[in-house]
């Protein structure tokens, strides 16, 4: 169904964000859709999103215009501005008149002015105590953003945050699963290698493991690597004294 009313667009946006919880998706494409819909839904001139990577460094990942992208890049370069402050504090930062920017934000102020922006709201992408980025809403005229728009923008940002964190959790869980799978596979080979040592040297399995482990450590090799070479018959471990 094609959305025509503001309510339709808002519902469709929430539905799109909710889909991230049950299906694979492209994070950048999702956030680009979010800023474009914010631009349509709210009384703003442009929107953009800064997202933190795994080490906490912010990156511009979506914007509705090159002008808003340049303003966000300036914030990152200066490490100061409403979006950066929003990310650091996890709170909404309201700047109804860019001329009232703190002294520390002078580079942001000048860049925003040059691109024709007069006010900005920064909405945190936050879940409980975890803030992963910020949504920038820019206007070409000074003044307050309507509170219902601020609440709706925060709700959209919250759902997007849940989706992103869900994707990261799945990705990290997959890494853990892969590591666990590799560990389990290695354990199978190690058991086989113990059998080889026990048979060739006529010693118990427990002692065979001690021999295997001691050889790996003394030669600064991974236990799984030594086990694989033993099973492949490309390595022979001398009988212990």
TrEMBL record:
Residues annotated as domain ANTAR: 170-231
Pfam families documented for this protein: ANTAR, GAF_2
Molecular-function GO term, any one: kinase activity
Residues spanning the signal sequence: none
SUPFAM superfamilies the UniProt entry points to: CheY-like (SSF52172), GAF domain-like (SSF55781)
InterPro entries, per database record: ANTAR (IPR005561), CheY-like_superfamily (IPR011006), GAF (IPR003018), GAF-like_dom_sf (IPR029016), GAF_ANTAR (IPR012074), WH-like_DNA-bd_sf (IPR036388)
Gene3D superfamilies documented for this protein: 3.30.450.40, Winged helix-like DNA-binding domain superfamily/Winged helix DNA-binding domain (1.10.10.10)
Alphabetized UniProt keyword annotations: Kinase, Transcription, Transcription regulation, Transferase
Protein name: ANTAR domain-containing protein
Organism from which the protein derives: Cryobacterium melibiosiphilum
